[in-house]
Amino acid sequence: MQRDPRAFLWDVRESALAIQSFTAGMDAAAYVANDMAQAAVERKFEIIGEALSQLAKLDAPLAARIPDLPQIVAFRNQLIHGYATVNVSTVWNVTQNALQPLLDAVQTLLDELGDA
Length: 116
What we know:
- α1 (5-23) packs antiparallel against α7 (99-113).
- The protein has helices spanning 5-23, 28-32, 35-58, 60-63, 69-81, 88-97, 99-113.
- The chain has 7 helices and no strands.
């Protein structure tokens, strides 16, 4: 049975919101000093990348509406498989600069599809 594309978008949204919650009130120095926050954020980015990878396989036209989808999936692959070392400052920068635009794009799609 095929999964509803909204489920993948929901996974992305919930993971992005969790990352924002995990890092609320932190600056870069506090994030670097907090191993638990780093592990939690990286895990949620892994979920985001996997959900978008699966969405692209299920509904390519819908997935294509997510900005930077290939880079997001590649970031997930780097985190999981270690193709390239991802340093903590890179993860922090992605959290601060790319997460909200992704969240906005996903929420727009969920609104259009009828967030069930």
